[in-house]
Amino acid sequence: MSEKGLHVSIPAFYFDREKLLQLARDNHNTFTHANPFPHIVFDNFIPVELISLLADEFPRVEEGKWTFWGPGDTIQTKRQFEKFGTSDETQFGPFTRHFMMQLNSDTFLRFLQILAGIEHLIPDPSFNRCGMHSTGMGGKLMIHTDQNRYPIEGRFHQILNAIFFINPDWREDYGGHLELWNKDLSKCEASILPIANRLVIFETGRFSFHGHPNPVTCPPHRRRNSLAVYYYMWDRPEDGRYQGYQEGVNWYAVRPEEKLVGKWIKLKRIIKKFVPPILMQVYDKIIGKK
Questions:
Q1: Cβ distance 141 to 209 under 8 Å?
Q2: pLDDT of 233-267, one tens digit each?
Q3: What is residue 36's predicted lDDT score, i.e. its pLDDT?
Q4: Which residues pair with 203 in a beta bridge?
Q5: CA-to-CA distance for 188 and 179, rounded, in angstroms?
Q6: Residue 43 burial (10 A CB sphere; 0-12, 13-18, 19+)
Q7: pLDDT tens for residues 25-81?
Q8: Which of 25, 80, 104, 208 is spaced 20 to 30 A from 120 at the CA atom?
């Protein structure tokens, strides 16, 4: 028996396999040659009538069971405006839950494999550390590289992120742009407005610096909402873009006012080499980082 919506009727939406695979073939070179690292942006990715359904189902932060994930290793604004998330599919609306499963379907995995030129992608049906994300006015997310988040630790290496934005009528002056930075963190190479029905797919690795470091400037009643899904591979080989299993998120201060924070981050990395992990976990919990 389902937790929600026992008698709710939802659209029977499924990706058209042939159209999706052709889209992947047509955009393979665009993805692999993108700067500063492989990525691509697709607009109007699903029928427009489904966006309002996803937006209507997206719960407010005051509702449901959210986890406070925060802005990164930096100074926080008011807690209610920072990044919240939930990986618990029982908190998704009926159609949202169905749509998220489509993003883990065989059809979508084949699409990603052709697009990125990767064989044997592995989905995570538990949506560990992904799922629904929400950030309010003044909230931000520091530039960072991802840790490996597969719920079973070992040899599952994160390799692709998919972020689907569901923000109807989102204006340029609301901010919240997803930023992709170059390898030496000297320049933002891509700035992507989180408008509704926009799908962003990018490769993750040691130098896939991304985030939205500038505070969101939307009205108080709006939030930057998205759905995120992560994909993995078994025994990912090391190369120029990937240098092994990353156990924690690496945060980077790129805004001028975060220079002091940047010095603390560097010091913290040194401290981590000498302090038992359990003590660092206690520290993170005390200051509200996840």
A1: no
A2: 887 666 666 655 566 677 888 887 776 665 666 66
A3: 97
A4: 160
A5: 6
A6: exposed
A7: 999 999 999 999 999 999 999 999 999 999 999 999 888 789 888 776 555 556 667
A8: 208
Total number of domains constituting the chain = 2
Residues 249, 264: Cα–Cα separation, whole Å:
15
Cis? peptide before 36, omega within 30° of 0: yes
User: What share of residues in the chain are helix, strand, coil (percent, to 5)?
Assistant: 30, 25, 50
Task: Based on the fold, state whether residues 63 and 105 are members of the same structural domain.
Answer: yes
8 belongs to a structural domain: no
- Structure-model confidence comparison of residues 72 and 289, the more confident one: 72
89 and 161 share one domain: yes
* Pairing state between β 131-136 and 84-86: antiparallel
Q: Tell me what the mean pLDDT of segment 110-115 comes to.
A: 98
Residue 130 within a domain:
yes
Within 10 A of 187 (CB to CB), how many other CB atoms are there?
10
* Residue 185 CA to its chain's centroid (Å): 19
For residues 278 and 284, what is the distance between their CA atoms, to the nearest angstrom? Answer: 10
Q: Kindly report whether the global pTM for this prediction surpasses the value 0.70.
A: yes
Please give the residue range of the domain that contains residue 26: 17-253
Looking at the structure, tell me whether residues 205 and 174 fall in a common domain.
yes
Give how far the C-alpha of residue 239 lies from the chain's centroid of Cα atoms, to the nearest Å. 23
Same domain membership, residue 182 and residue 105: yes
Pair 13, 20: CB distance under 8 Å:
no
Is 190 in the same domain as 276?
Answer: no
Are residue 194 and residue 241 in the same domain, yes or no? yes
**Tokens representing 127?**
């949506």
